[in-house]
From TrEMBL:
One of its GO terms (biological process) is thiamine diphosphate biosynthetic process. Belongs to the TenA family. Residues 8-210 form the Thiaminase-2/PQQC domain. This is Aminopyrimidine aminohydrolase. InterPro entries: Haem_Oase-like_multi-hlx (IPR016084), Thiaminase-2/PQQC (IPR004305), Thiaminase_II (IPR027574), Thiamine_Salvage_TenA (IPR050967). The keyword Hydrolase applies. PANTHER family: BIFUNCTIONAL TH2 PROTEIN, SI:CH1073-67J19.1-RELATED. The keyword Hydrolase applies. GO terms for cellular component: cytosol. Pathway: Cofactor biosynthesis; thiamine diphosphate biosynthesis. GO terms for molecular function: thiaminase activity.
């Protein structure tokens, strides 16, 4: 069994709740209120800017130029997607460039940045994997089951697309290779990081669905 199969099995209950979450169900049906999608897009633009930094820092830990290049490519892509959001959705929906991270976005981005800075390469890679893999699975699921026409078609196409699929496969391969030569202790930390980041993926969607605000 591949290590990533083990990760998938461990986090399956979390993934199932993500797929069933009303945000993703309504996105699939095309009935998600625009206000929630706009909230999500703005928070995601803040997320992507920090995700790019975490990817670059993780790549710098790899110790080989091949994987450094892979991670710098992922980081570049996150920045380009963030810019594309501004050019498309921000314009189309008149999203304002103001406002801070909601608690869910804050928790997730700070977790990724702190793991990439303070944990090993192996653990950082495992923490970053759900961002790739869960989005691909959710994108494919929505694409296959969506009601069309769907007002959120561009978003759905981006994450079910082949290009994103290649990046996901690269990240999976790197994670499997690292796990093969990792100690049991490191593998355990990788599983925990993968689970925590998966939970934070759930939190991120839920935060958008609730239009989450700071309590004080
Ligand atoms: C919260 C979140 N996770 C993952 C992705 C995919 O990169 C994204 N755009 N946003």
């Amino acid at each position: 069994m591949k290590f990533t199969d083990l990760l998938w099995a461990n986090a399956l209950p979390i993934y199932e709740q993500i797929q069933l979450h009303p945000f993703n169900q309504e996105l699939k049906e095309g009935t998600l209120p625009l206000e929630k999608f706009k909230f999500y897009i703005y928070q995601d633009s803040l997320y992507l800017a920090d995700f790019a930094k975490a990817l670059a820092v993780t790549g710098a830990k790899s110790g080989n130029s091949h994987e450094l290049l892979d991670f710098l490519g992922f980081a570049q892509n996150a920045i380009l997607v963030e810019r594309a959001l501004h050019l498309s959705y921000f314009k189309e929906y008149n999203i304002e460039h103001a406002g801070e991270k909601a608690p869910g976005c804050f928790a997730y981005t700070n977790y990724l940045m702190s793991v990439s800075a303070f944990e090993s390469y192996e653990v950082a890679v495992a923490a970053l994997l759900p961002c790739f893999w869960i989005y691909k699975k959710v994108g494919d699921y929505i694409y296959a089951n969506q009601i069309s026409p769907n007002p959120y078609q561009n978003w759905i196409n981006a994450y079910s697309g082949e290009e994103f699929g290649h990046s996901v496969q690269k990240a999976l391969d790197i994670c499997d290779r690292l796990a093969e030569s990792a100690t049991d202790n490191v593998r355990q930390k990788m599983i925990e990081a993968y689970l925590t980041a998966s939970r934070l993926e759930y939190v991120f969607w839920d935060s958008a669905y609730q239009l989450e605000q700071w309590a004080v």
